[in-house]
Amino acid sequence: MLEPSHNNELPTIPGKRYFTIGEVAELCAVKAHVLRYWEQEFPQLSPVKRRGNRRYYQRADVITIRQIRSLLYDQGYTIGGAKQKLSSHEVKDDTSQYKQLIRQMITELEEVLDVLNTPVK
């Protein structure tokens, strides 16, 4: 969905598992408040939230944000048009939502395991 000419303008996505909202804002060349707004408008965006409601985005989220950015800023779609365009591709993305939910559960279980494995003083 992103055109190759626009990919060159954005920095390469590092090989990390999770990204903070500030890192994603830099990687996608948008402000943090825009990302928060897009989370409300696009159901495809659902970053993992941990303690204190801190958002952690995964690589797939960053790619989706870049697609949204391209639709809105480069191709001139409205929010509604971008939603329709993304939802037309959503049928094949249903499994990715389940995968993300499973990843989130694994992360939460790993946090519980870390707490349980911490020695008591």
TrEMBL record:
<keyword id="KW-0238">DNA-binding</keyword>
<protein>
    <submittedName>
        <fullName>MerR family transcriptional regulator</fullName>
    </submittedName>
</protein>
<dbReference type="InterPro" id="IPR009061">
    <property type="entry name" value="DNA-bd_dom_put_sf"/>
</dbReference>
<dbReference type="InterPro" id="IPR000551">
    <property type="entry name" value="MerR-type_HTH_dom"/>
</dbReference>
<dbReference type="Pfam" id="PF13411">
    <property type="entry name" value="MerR_1"/>
</dbReference>
<feature type="domain" description="HTH merR-type">
    <location>
        <begin position="18"/>
        <end position="88"/>
    </location>
</feature>
<dbReference type="GO" id="GO:0003677">
    <property type="term" value="F:DNA binding"/>
</dbReference>
<dbReference type="InterPro" id="IPR047057">
    <property type="entry name" value="MerR_fam"/>
</dbReference>
<dbReference type="GO" id="GO:0003700">
    <property type="term" value="F:DNA-binding transcription factor activity"/>
</dbReference>
